[in-house]
Each structure stands twice: as C-alpha cells, then as structure tokens.
Amino acid sequence: MDVSELNERVLQAAFDRAERLDFFLIGAGRNPWSMPEDLRQRFRELSLSVDAMATGAAVRTYNILLAENRRVGAGLIAVT
Known about the structure:
The protein is of the alpha/beta class. The protein has one domain (3-76): MTH938-like (Hypothetical Protein Mth938, Chain: A). 34% of the residues lie in helices and 19% in strands. It has three helices and three strands, in the order H-E-H-E-H-E. The protein has helices spanning 12-16, 37-45, 55-67, and strands at residues 23-27, 49-53, 72-76. It has a three-stranded parallel β-sheet, sandwiched between helices. Strand 1 (23-27), helix 2 (37-45) and strand 2 form a beta-alpha-beta unit. It is globular. It starts with 11 loop residues before the first helix and ends with a strand. 15% of the residues are buried. The model has no long low-confidence stretch (mean pLDDT 94).
C-alpha cells in the first residue's frame, strides 16, 4: 500500500476503536506525509489525536507510548 491510498475506508478500523484510543499514529513509509484535511477532521470529530510521520519514527513513538501505558494505535506502511 502507498500512503496516497489512505482514506476513511482504509482507516475505518481505527475509527471504530476511537473510544478506546487516545492516540493514533500513521507510519507513512520512508517520508513524512501531510494528512489531507478531511482525514484530520474525521479524527478530530472522534476526539482522537493523530500524527503522521515516517514509519520508522512511528514505530519508535508507538513503542514509547505503549511503554508509558498510553492507549495508542498505529497504521504502518511497510518500508521496503
């Protein structure tokens, strides 16, 4: 999958779990990615903080938040 394919349908599982999460991280591959405003708005409507970054940074951030017992989820695009 490429980051350009991310949309509400692809992220539906995260939206379905929004009440059980405080943070959602998007690992967008090798490069940083600016999330489209419509997706950012959807996360706002669900009161779910979201951040998009390179996948390596997302994995490191996820591990730190998890170690802090934070309610975090992630969608990660593999880096090949």
